[in-house]
Amino acid sequence: MAVGVALLAALLIADRVAVIHAQGRIATRLGDRGFAARPQVRIAGFPFFTQLVARRLNKVVISAAGAKLGPVEVKRLDVTLYGIRASSGCNGKTASRLSGTALVGFPGLAGAGGAPRLAVCAGGPDWVKITIAGLGLVAGTVTARVTQAGPGGIRIAVISAGGIPVAALGLMPDIIRSLPALSLAMTVQNASVTSQGVQLHLAGRNVSLG
């Protein structure tokens, strides 16, 4: 009985050691795939050895903070990969699909505007309020709608100038910022405004992990 318990404990410990090692390897690989810092990786499911033998990981959760997607700084990136299979020879891995979110904080959104002294805050589910200063004698607040711009971008379109002459806004009435550094071939599905920033909903299929 004692031998059986000891053997079971040893197997459990070995399983946890193996999953921690695998999580570390995935995090290291992803460190060079557009993440500003080494991401946190969690392989879901127990036991891990059965997934290892089947050469398939059912679910892998990835989290990272402070990522840089082109000109836009992302406050937090959370991605889940499903159905990861190893290719022959273990030279690469492919996930059948991906889903996740990227939170662009309001300071990062203000920086994407390309104009000095912008302060951005939530206005509604799909629009923000932008307080402008530093445009000569012009100052005030405009409202702008935030939407997806194709598979890899954000559009910030002014819908009300709040009495500010449109000519004084320069390029601000309609700004499109591409996110060329989206990791893992993720695409933007839609965008929504929250109290903390703009939430981008991400997706992908047949994602190569290298």
Give a quick precis of the structure:
20% of the residues lie in helices and 50% in strands.
Walk me through the structure.
The protein is α+β, with helices and mostly antiparallel strands and 210 residues long. The protein folds into 2 domains: 2-103 and 204-208; 106-199, no CATH class. Helix content is 20%, strand content 50%. The protein has helices at 2-30, 48-54, 106-112, and strands spanning 40-43, 56-69, 72-86, 93-105, 118-124, 127-135, 138-148, 153-160, 174-178, 187-193, 197-208. The termini are far apart. The model has no long low-confidence stretch (mean pLDDT 77).
User: How much helix is in the residues?
Assistant: 10-25%
Backbone CA Rg: 22 Å
Major sheet: arrangement of strands: 1-2-3-4-11-10
So how many helices? 3
How many distinct folded domains?
A: 2
**What general outline do the C-alpha atoms trace?**
elongated
In what range is the share of β-strand residues?
Answer: over 45%
- Report the order of strands and helices: HEHEEEHEEEEEEE
Number of strands: 11
The overall average pLDDT, rounded, is 77
Structural category: alpha+beta
Multimeric organization: single chain
| Euclidean distance between termini CA atoms | 45 Å
Low-confidence stretches: none
> For the report, how would you describe the main beta sheet?
6 strands, antiparallel
